[in-house]
Design goal:
heterodimer; A: 610 residues; alpha+beta; Aldehyde Ferredoxin Oxidoreductase,  A, domain 1; Aldehyde Ferredoxin Oxidoreductase Protein, subunit A, domain 2; Aldehyde Ferredoxin Oxidoreductase Protein, subunit A, domain 3; six-stranded mixed beta sheet; B: eight-stranded mixed beta sheet; 39% helix; globular
Chain lengths: 610, 217
């Protein structure tokens, strides 16, 4: 095989046995790889009725056919399981070098089953896979864990691991790889913790086989002028993901004070321009990436002077731990990001949980006595203390560690009205009142409130994707037409996440099938890839349907539906239940689902899922 | 179809498309990323088109993409030009056209932006180009642009696309190339003249009348 290795490693932690499995070309044609293949495995093998922490839950790490090849921006992996936040489909994505190393070791992916009796470490050294004792690593932070493992096994090993948050089953625990890259969302780190798996260390020595390397080089050389000219590619190269912060702010898209304010006089303190000027010391990139959006940061002054992060805060972290909490101090954001990386916590969910706690405190629903500290908006001490309390599952932190949905159910007092989540996954840092299509995307996304699977706000900003037949500019406050566009971009993003190629590369969809063909030798057309994307989206939905998800869960937080903001770029807009209903009706119709959001038999048959 | 020109092979056609692109690139009528060319064997309902987003100065035959008149990809691995819909539209509307050149002629496009019409300042302008119509703005790559071009292409050899570039069509590639090249030559002459003189001396009316009668313009 080319591009693909054609082999998956299956690891049973209960029996401490590993085995290799071949993957057939038929399956790869239907599900591509990456998230598509992971979804197929989980759909076929995971009983939807089990608890996410049951040893029978499976944690699937997957790369794609383009991973680790000379195609740019292909250093990513996806990790999937039943999510402890949503009790339904869960997936998280990360980049760096770990994924490429796994392919070089000789595997497209790893399926982790069962539960180890004691803390364990999975070592994959080329095709030699073994389970080792990790008791000495248990309790260590992610960055320390990685350092220690590389010291013991060798610097060439790449490590993906959990921190104390994952060990303690914090429901939004992340998996951290390559010194601070995070597979953050949906609590995949908690699933890994529930299996007593501390880390996966990988070293590989083989090149990923490619069908036509010379032709690919020749094509890439000549399409670089176009893909590097793409506007967001330019912004990410210049500033990293923070480069769009002020522009998003103008739209009213940046959440402030738990989505309760539309303006904040101090926004420039955390802008991309300020961040790059004050905090950033160097730019770094993942495997084979011409954009280099990572920022190496160092705090020069104040209480955290000398603190360095090799992978500094991204847009989501700058806002989730900044504007969302009315925290205008970049040094505090860097420190908070450092703590999240050490504990292994998703910075988005962490920020949303802290914002929720601060609003509860402001409204008198919880007191200083409950929290152990005053939770004033923007207070650095409160923010950093709560992160530690969540990571340690201490006091109020233990309640917040359950995620904002469960925390608000426990705390009560009307707090569910400002618990910002969909299906249990905390909202990312794009306010859907600024882009109503994003509201629909959040409402229906398989993993809960997700900005990345579709990123339809690009279309609502005016981007036309002619290859996907998105020709028209859509008014961002309009609801008509959004159902169709959201489905289209979601399907396409499933393709990108199955291949796997980073969404920051400004490569038009029409180029992708050709590059796939040259890498794998398997002919693919744009139509075929889009259909595969739709198939993958639907198989995830079917897993969710089996978990009990339906129309009732495709909804938005109360605040988004009932509270408009008086100031800022959203111009008082909200997404009323009636508007959401209109969008859902169109969306379900386009998707071939019934009015309850269940894929119709003929849709499943058309996609070869039945 | 009556064959007044020998039908070449598809491979020759692809070579010819690349040669045409290189000549236009070297003349500055096609830029690194802007412009596209297609051609078909006479009578065929499929055509070969240049890929999108690939540096135009170094195209190779294996880069080209074969599509049908609905724009569906039949052969090739690269992304077909984003303007495939309007190329397909022209072939659907004009059985006599076997080659379409879309170039980014800087002077012609500049004159159109300034609202200046291409006038019969030379015999070529009148005879070769006939009447050059300006197609109003539509976003590149959309069906809306294809439809507008479809409305304007009847009886035309050259069109100017507002804020975009030009289109030349012909029974073969050399003819389509001649059209866009002549268009730029005429536009340049008109532009130079307009710097020095407000009213341009056009071809005398009696000669124009003769030309119009002779050539049915």
């Amino acid at each position: 095989m080319y591009g693909y290795i054609g082999k998956i490693l299956r690891v049973n932690l209960t029996s401490e046995k590993t085995k290799e499995e071949n993957v057939g070309e038929d399956l790869l044609r239907k599900f591509i790889g990456g998230v598509g293949l992971a979804a197929k495995i989980i759909y076929d093998e995971v009983n939807p009725a089990i608890s996410p922490f049951d040893p029978e839950n499976k944690l699937v790490f997957m790369t794609g056919p383009l991973t680790g090849t000379l195609i740019p921006c292909t250093g990513r992996y996806v990790v999937c399981a039943k999510s402890p936040l949503t009790d339904a489909w869960g997936e998280a994505h990360s980049s760096g070098f770990w994924a490429r190393e796994l392919k070089r070791a000789g595997y497209d992916g790893i399926v982790i089953e069962g539960k180890s009796e004691k803390p364990s470490l999975l070592v994959i050294d080329d095709e030699d896979a073994r389970i080792e004792d990790a008791s000495h690593l248990w309790g260590k932070g992610c960055l320390e864990t990685e350092e220690q493992i590389r010291k013991e096994l060798g610097e060439a090993f790449r490590v993906a691991c959990i921190g104390p948050a994952g060990e303690r089953l914090v429901r939004f625990a992340s998996i951290i790889n390559d010194e601070g890259r995070a597979a953050g969302r949906c609590g995949m780190g908690a699933v890994m913790g529930s299996k007593n798996l501390k880390a996966i260390a990988v070293r590989g020595s083989k090149e990923v086989p490619i069908k036509e390397p010379e032709r690919i080089r020749n094509v890439l050389r000549r399409i670089y002028p176009q893909i590097m000219s793409f506007p967001t590619t330019q912004i990410y190269a210049s500033y990293g993901t923070s480069g769009e912060l002020l522009s998003f702010y103008e739209y009213g898209d940046v959440p402030i004070k738990n989505f309760a304010l539309g303006k904040w006089a101090e926004i420039e303190h955390i802008s991309g321009e300020t961040y790059n000027k004050v905090m950033v010391k160097a730019k770094r990139s993942c495997w084979n990436c011409p954009i280099a959006c990572w920022r190496y940061v160092r705090v020069d002054e104040g209480p955290y002077a000398g603190l360095e992060l090799k992978r500094g805060p991204e847009y989501e972290t700058l806002t989730a731990l900044g504007s969302l909490l009315l925290n205008n101090r970049l040094d505090v954001i860097v420190r908070a990001n450092y703590l999240c990386n050490q504990y292994g916590l998703d910075t988005i969910s962490t920020g949303v949980c802290i914002a929720f706690a601060m609003e509860c405190y402001e409204k008198g629903i919880i007191t200083e006595k409950d929290a152990g500290i005053s939770l004033k908006w923007g207070d650095p001490e409160a923010i950093l203390r709560l992160i530690e309390d969540i990571g340690e599952r201490r006091g109020l932190g233990d309640i917040l560690a359950e995620g904002v949905k469960r925390a608000s159910a426990k705390i009560g007092g009307g707090s569910e009205k400002f618990a910002m989540h969909v299906k249990g996954l905390e909202m990312p840092m794009h306010d859907p009142r600024a882009f109503k299509g994003m509201g629909l995307q959040y409402a229906v996304s398989n993993r809960g409130a997700c900005h990345l699977q579709g990123m339809v706000l690009r279309v609502e900003q005016g981007e036309r994707v002619t290859d996907l037949k998105i020709y028209e500019r859509l008014d961002r406050f309009e609801v008509r037409g959004k159902g169709s566009v959201v489905a289209t971009v979601q399907n396409w993003h499933e393709v990108l996440e199955s291949l796997i190629i980073c969404k920051f590369l400004g490569i038009p969809p029409g180029h992708i099938p050709g590059l796939y063909t040259l890498v794998t030798g398997i002919h693919m057309t744009l139509e075929h890839s889009i259909e595969a994307g739709e198939r993958i989206y639907n198989i995830k939905r079917m897993f969710n349907v089996r978990c009990g998800i339906s129309r009732k869960d495709d909804t938005l937080p109360y605040r988004i539906m009932y509270e408009g903001l008086r100031e800022g770029g959203t111009l008082g807009n909200r997404i009323s239940p009636e508007e959401l209903d209109m969008m859902l009706k169109e969306y379900y119709m386009v998707r071939g689902w019934d009015e309850n959001g269940i894929p119709r038999t003929e849709t499943l048959r058309r996609l070869g899922l039945q | 179809m009556e064959e007044f020109l020998p039908l070449g092979s598809e491979e020759e056609l692809k070579e010819e498309i690349c040669k045409t692109m290189r000549r236009l690139f070297n003349r500055g009528l096609v830029s690194a990323l802007g412009g596209n060319i297609s051609a078909r064997l006479p009578g065929s309902s499929e055509f070969w088109i240049t890929p999108s987003g690939v540096f135009k100065g170094e195209l190779e035959p294996e880069d080209l993409v074969k599509v049908d008149l609905d724009g569906r990809v039949l052969e090739g691995f690269l992304r077909p030009s984003v303007e495939t819909p309007f190329h397909a539209m022209i072939y659907r509307r004009r059985a006599d056209v076997n080659a379409v050149v879309h170039s980014h002629n800087p002077v012609t496009t500049g004159l159109a932006l300034a609202g200046i019409e291409i006038k019969p300042v030379t015999i070529e302008a009148a005879v070769v180009l006939r009447r050059v119509r300006v197609v109003p703005w539509a976003f590149p790559g959309t069906d809306a642009l294809a439809n507008l071009i479809g409305e304007h292409i009847e009886g035309a050899r050259a069109l100017v696309l507002m804020n975009h570039g030009v289109v030349g069509v012909g029974s073969n590639l050399l003819e389509a190339e001649t059209i866009v090249e002549t268009l730029e030559e005429v536009a340049t002459a008109q532009f130079v003249a307009s710097i020095f003189k407000r009213e341009l001396p056009l071809i005398p009316e009696e000669d124009m009348e003769l030309i119009k009668r002779l050539y049915g313009i």
